[in-house]
Amino acid sequence: MKxxxxxxxxPAAGLGVVWQxxxxxxxxxxxxxxxxxxxxxxxxxxxSLIERREAxxxxxxxxxxxxxxxxxxxHFPQLSGLRVGFCWPxxxxxxxxxxxxxxxxxxxxxxxxLLPVVVGAAQPLAFRAWIPGGTGAAETxxxxxxxxxxxxxxxxxxxxxxxxxxxxxxxxxxxxxxYGGGYFDRTLAAISPRPLAIGIGFDFSRVATVWPQAxxxxxxxxxxxxxxxxxxxxxx
Length: 236
Ligand SMILES: Nc1nc2c(c(=O)[nH]1)N(C=O)[C@@H](CNc1ccc(C(=O)N[C@@H](CCC(=O)O)C(=O)O)cc1)CN2
Ligand SMILES: Nc1ncnc2c1ncn2[C@@H]1O[C@H](COP(=O)(O)OP(=O)(O)OP(=O)(O)O)[C@@H](O)[C@H]1O
Hints:
Pfam families: 5-FTHF_cyc-lig. The chain has 236 residues and is an alpha/beta fold. Helices cover 24% and strands 20% of the residues.
């Protein structure tokens, strides 16, 4: 299969799917250190999991990325025909670029790879198409945003149908912690219809609770290097 050339040899269908109920009660914070403000607990959890990931060796990150890519191919094949937002990896995040590049080369009608554009600190993210070199089409010029992350410097804004959302922590109900900017929560709340939201991260990012807040938007699924988790919606 041409599109898999160069990909590390990992089992494509070896990862199981776990269904988890996303109940209203799961959103109620369970017992925690009495007297410690939730914002502080969330900050501490975010910091410790980012530190754990940043301490990983490059080859560990590469293997985890290959496993996540294999699971996305197997369990979410519909993504290859959608407008898919993903993130340029930073600080040892899972690297999805080889997958998006494969899907660009496959050129299924309707597919676009989109990168976020930070428009403003309290704004939802916008998205622009990413076309890397070597696809035959004009390459998208990248610039660095206020956080030092590459983003497409020009092009129309495009509304994503699915978002591959990096997680620093994710809980049993599908709530996540990012970097504390609130960007993805604002983005998921702003786009209608709501895009399919798939969390992407290391399996050690899974925790019992992130003490979700009123503004937190739950994920539909999480793909880690160990399994695929689907968060079932309960009719509220
Ligand atoms: N690779 C990648 N790109 C992404 C995201 C992401 O999670 N991963 N984002 C996902 O939303 C957006 C960027 N969000 C970010 C939010 C905060 C910081 C940041 O550096 N925050 C400071 C602390 C800020 C504060 O003082 O509160 C830090 O972590 O040091 C970086 C990116 C869009 N691009
Ligand atoms: N829909 C929203 N409307 C207004 N403010 C919001 C919204 N969503 C999040 N925020 C604000 O953003 C701030 C950070 O939120 P939170 O700690 O959940 O970020 P995060 O999910 O870790 O960040 P990110 O999505 O950027 O990775 C909070 O102070 C919150 O009030």
